[in-house]
Hints:
Blueprint: H1 24-33, E1 36-39, E2 44-47, H2 50-58, E3 62-63, H3 79-89, H4 100-111, H5 114-118, H6 121-138, E4 140-142, H7 143-148, H8 150-160, H9 167-182, H10 188-214, H11 220-226, H12 236-267, H13 269-277, H14 282-292, E5 298-303, E6 307-309, E7 312-314, E8 319-323, H15 324-327, H16 362-379, E9 383-385, E10 391-393, E11 400-403, E12 405-408
Parallel strand pairs: 2-8
Antiparallel strand pairs: 1-2, 3-5, 4-12, 5-8, 6-7, 9-12, 10-11
Amino acid sequence: MQLEHEQKLSLKQVFLPRYAANPYPLYQQLRRQGAVFWDEVLGNWVITGYSEVLSVLRDAHMSAARFEVTTDWIPAEWLAMMEPPIRALTRQMLFLDPPDHSRLRGLVAKAFTPRVVEAMRVRIQQLVDELLDVLLARGQSNLIEDFAYPLPAIVIAEMLGVPPEDREQFVVWTGNFGAILEGRELTMEEIIQAFVGVNQFMQYFREIIAQRRTQPKPDLLQAMISAEEGGDVLSEEELLGNCVLLLAAGHGTTTHLIGNGMMALLQHPQQYQLLKEHPEIISSAVQELLRYDGPVQATSRRAKEDVVLGGKQIQAGQNVLVSLGSANHDPAQFADSDQLHLQRLENRHLSFGQGIHFCLGAPLARLEAEIAFNTLLRRLPQPHLEEERVEWETGMVFRGLKTLPLLFA
Ligand code: HEM
């Protein structure tokens, strides 16, 4: 792929095939350009330094309401279809500032509690074992398709109380939702297709929520419907938007944590062996795998007022792309920042973000990953990676594998 302005250093170069397997050398070059720099190709500020990324994510002047919500660009014949998903997306907590954000996050967090997550432990182990039984019997596997993708999809579907058999459809809709977040340049046709998908996603939940109102069930969806704080509840639109967010955020990212993490372990046989022999280090191991090659490489904010950061003046209304991937490899914060150390101490990685939008699903993602890695390492007999068949998906925001082909001895 020949990119326009290929000569100019830009975060957009992550789309180049040479950075697909390893974008970190690009981030290193970007950090040399500045912890805060104006990316001419993207027409955005890009933040690459750890402490500057932290400042942006904690700064109340940096708004999470970063997408254009005007509808004047939508062709008239599509307006009726696109308005509802656009409105619902703007009611997702991820794109809101306080006080709306605090209210919504509070209500959803009342349903999605640590106890609800911990209650999934036994079921997650059972699913991991069942998926492994099938792939081990075959002697080979694309670990993404056979394991890393179905596990989190089934877990979040069961938690929410939607049929796990519908998961093929969730992937398509999550892809549609992801395309809107990814920030890749889309044609009008692709934008419409993405919103058609999100609209169907919402319709799907609309029907299930309607059933729940007459036939309650003991699941997360029901808990979200019933969540109440001082007489306040989630409106239908807020419920829909945040169900889409939970289901979409709940599986794609965790798939990539398992895939990227397993890839990193296979590329570091000593670290692989260390974890296999010492499963008790799993919690710090997962934190390090998140830091080393996280599934969410970037997020964004919009300046509400003029802000001075890293000696640069960011003007009100300008967009800021925050490179979590670069911050996680910043040598000013992490010793041997490009090395994988599963027992790393002081690992304040930013893969789940930071501040008020810190990932609500982090405990679930970590639990799934801990059970997955420990069981994979215990049960896989000498996996051999077929390097030439590995395929990465490129992206500025999401990073993960399409295929992780393994053969077992
Ligand atoms: C390894 C897996 C995951 C990663 C790397 C990840 C990463 C992130 C990041 C970076 C943010 C903050 C974005 C920002 O500040 O702009 C975020 C927010 C969020 N994540 Fe996750 N996530 C993961 C798994 C999950 C899961 C399993 C769920 C739910 C089941 C989830 C639900 C959410 C929600 C609801 C938010 C919005 C929180 C808010 O705005 O207050 N995530 N996630």
